[in-house]
């Protein structure tokens, strides 16, 4: 008799085939009986999870390296390598998820049951079990991401611009509305080629999710929050209703200012705001139009960008003065690049200093050796900022095309939040090396940015010491609100669109119209030019072709204020929440690190309670933070026709 182990669990007893018995009566011969499968045990489940942890340690460095190579060196070759690696990873996950089903009825330990659930939810791209479809899915994913990373707008005169260059036009409030509309359109045109790819991706992703027992891919995504998908829907809507009045008041005020600037023909007094006039390619954050809506011009002015650019220019002048001989144009371009790289490191060090001031460790030397901090001169890369844990053992990196401006400095603080989360939970078994839920991962770095107060920026030498009065507070809050409050509806609607697509409620023939319906409903914005179903405007945002779930960002924008309030309380701070700076407070840092170190090992409610004392996400701290601005907006909006009506199809 041959005993064969199936996966890591049950034993299958296989008898050698014998001759069939003659006649129809009597006992069935042993050789003709069905194989006997022993029941899986709790010990088998523990062994299965231990094997998964070993596999993660062995396999993830290879898969991460392939993805890193594609993102930082976009060629047909790296796209092929990343696609093959992704296919192998999807095959591995699919196989292990299937094997894990043998433990569905096993009374395993809480840790083992949680580990198996996390395995099932470990990818946003569940692959069908069919090898050909799995390969097709991997190829589509690589193609869509490469299309985004290499996308360019080529003008009629022949000049081709990458996304960072196009954004400089859209982000500039001094550029004409026509110039910004042209640039907006140029970038959105780059998404057209992946429209049909996305249709097929949704089909394959749904098939993979159904094999795991979910109705569709959207339901699978919503299952990862220690509550049912229906409960999660209700939770997100509850939070939105809690914070949406702030957005409504800000939208009304900004629309009035833009109407005064551009006139009724460009911005209506009581309708949707054209999306290209809000200082951001996706109208997700509006801080670039702050000069147009600054409540008290010049009061408490904080020109962080000017300070950073001055430092960068000083570095360039130093390099130029040290150059031997007369530099050629190529030499000058290289010196410019070296100055950019040096400034990128300096800005990253500023962010690192905040975390170490809380008692967190210095970043490993390999971080600076291996990170991509500036756009290379010789190749295409995916400039979208991201943080990477390459091996679950300390090889951490960021990928960001850093430029010397305030927004980029804030983004670095955000990305290092991911990095320090990785480092804090690297001691856990690999299956638990993740966030309590994905909103936590996005919130950590943003908690730190809330301490970048005028006093803090003066403390680290980026702005002069400020005289803080009520007008300066309102100006500062307006600037933050154009970043934080304006993001809330965008953070919610991106996945609302995808969930409709995955559920079949939004058909391919209506993809683009459905996208703009949601943008009108939640953001109160409209496209700058007429759109049709020949377009694929959702694909102009990285997270759609990159297939990164997005509700995490909405949750993080609520959680970061809730966490900041708890950390300020731990630091013994007394005063208005918007003025709290936890820099240098090791008690707050200890509370922070204790929470981060739990990773995904416990339900998020327990992890949140460890820091905040409550098991429920809550938007009240966000409202408290912006109380001075809300009072100002209510006063300014008197007599205006606020709100908007989204067109019905």
Automatic annotation (TrEMBL):
Q: Where is the active site?
A: 415 (proton acceptor 1), 415 (proton acceptor 2), 543 (proton donor 2), 543 (proton donor 1)
Q: Which GO terms describe its cellular component?
A: membrane
Disulfide bonds listed in the record: 154-160, 383-401, 568-580
- Keywords, in A-Z order: Disulfide bond, Glycoprotein, Metal-binding, Signal, Zinc
**Would you indicate the residue range of the signal peptide?**
1-20
- Name a GO molecular-function annotation: metallopeptidase activity
Protein name, per record:
Peptidyl-dipeptidase A
Residues given in the record as Zn(2+) 2 binding sites: 414, 418, 442
Say which species the protein is native to: Sinimarinibacterium flocculans
Q: Which residues bind Zn(2+) 1?
A: 414, 418, 442
Query: Which InterPro entries does the protein's record reference?
Result: Peptidase_M2
One GO biological-process annotation of the entry reads: proteolysis
């Amino acid at each position: 008799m041959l005993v064969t182990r199936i996966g890591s669990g049950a034993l299958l007893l296989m008898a050698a085939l014998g001759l069939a018995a003659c006649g129809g009566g009597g006992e069935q011969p042993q050789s003709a009986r069905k194989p006997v499968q022993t029941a899986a045990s709790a010990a088998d489940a523990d062994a299965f999870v231990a094997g998964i942890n070993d596999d993660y340690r062995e396999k993830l460095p290879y898969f991460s390296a392939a993805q890193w190579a594609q993102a930082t060196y976009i060629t047909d070759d790296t796209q092929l390598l990343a696609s093959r690696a992704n296919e192998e990873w999807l095959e591995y996950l699919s196989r292990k998820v299937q094997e894990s089903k043998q433990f569905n009825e096993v009374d395993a330990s809480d840790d083992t049951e949680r580990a198996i659930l996390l395995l099932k939810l470990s990818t946003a791209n569940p692959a069908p079990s069919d090898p050909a479809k799995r390969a097709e899915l991997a190829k589509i994913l690589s193609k869509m991401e490469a299309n985004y990373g290499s996308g360019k707008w080529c003008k009629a005169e022949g000049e081709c611009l990458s996304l960072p260059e196009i954004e400089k036009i859209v982000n500039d409030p001094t550029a004409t509305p026509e110039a910004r509309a042209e640039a907006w359109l140029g970038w959105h045109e780059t998404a057209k080629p992946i429209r049909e790819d996305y249709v097929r991706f949704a089909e394959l992703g749904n098939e993979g999710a159904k094999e795991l027992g979910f109705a569709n891919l959207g339901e699978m995504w919503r299952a990862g929050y220690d509550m049912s998908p229906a409960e999660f829907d209700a939770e997100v809507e509850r939070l939105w209703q809690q914070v949406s009045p702030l957005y409504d008041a800000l939208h009304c005020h900004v629309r009035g200012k833009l109407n005064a600037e551009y006139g009724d023909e460009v911005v209506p007094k009581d309708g949707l705001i054209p999306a290209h006039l809000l200082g951001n390619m996706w109208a997700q954050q509006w801080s670039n139009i702050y000069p147009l809506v600054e409540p008290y011009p010049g009061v408490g002015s904080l020109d962080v960008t000017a300070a950073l650019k001055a430092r960068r220019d000083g570095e360039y002048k130093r390099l130029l003065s040290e150059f031997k001989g007369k530099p050629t144009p190529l030499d000058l371009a290289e010196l410019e690049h070296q100055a950019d790289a040096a400034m990128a490191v300096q800005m990253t060090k500023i962010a690192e200093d905040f975390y170490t001031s809380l008692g967190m460790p210095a970043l490993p030397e390999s971080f600076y050796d291996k990170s991509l901090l500036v756009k290379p001169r010789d190749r295409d890369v995916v400039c979208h900022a991201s943080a990477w844990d390459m091996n679950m053992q300390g090889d951490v990196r960021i990928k960001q095309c850093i430029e010397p401006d305030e927004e980029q400095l804030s983004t670095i603080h955000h990305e290092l939040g991911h990095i320090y989360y990785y480092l804090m939970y690297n001691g856990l078994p690999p299956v638990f090396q993740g966030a309590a839920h994905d909103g936590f991962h996005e919130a950590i770095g943003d908690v730190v940015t809330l301490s970048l107060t005028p006093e803090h920026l003066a403390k680290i030498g980026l702005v002069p010491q400020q005289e803080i009065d009520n007008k300066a507070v309102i100006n500062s809050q307006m600037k933050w609100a154009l970043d934080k409050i304006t993001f809330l509806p965008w953070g919610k609607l991106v996945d609302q669109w995808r969930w409709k697509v995955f559920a079949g409620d939004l058909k391919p023939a209506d993809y683009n119209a459905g996208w703009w319906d949601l943008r009108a409903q939640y953001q109160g914005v409209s496209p700058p030019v007429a759109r049709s179903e020949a377009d694929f405007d959702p694909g102009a945002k990285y997270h759609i072709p990159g297939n990164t779930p997005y509700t995490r960002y909405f949750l993080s924008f609520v959680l970061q204020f809730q966490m900041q309030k708890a950390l300020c309380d731990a630091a013994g701070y007394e005063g208005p929440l918007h003025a709290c700076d936890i820099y240098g407070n090791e008690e707050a840092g200890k509370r922070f690190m204790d929470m981060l170190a739990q990773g995904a090992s416990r339900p998020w409610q327990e992890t949140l309670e460890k820091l905040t004392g409550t098991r429920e996400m809550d938007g009240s701290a966000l409202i408290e933070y912006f109380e001075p601005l809300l009072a100002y907006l209510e006063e300014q909006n008197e007599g205006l026709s606020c709100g908007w009506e989204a067109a019905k199809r």
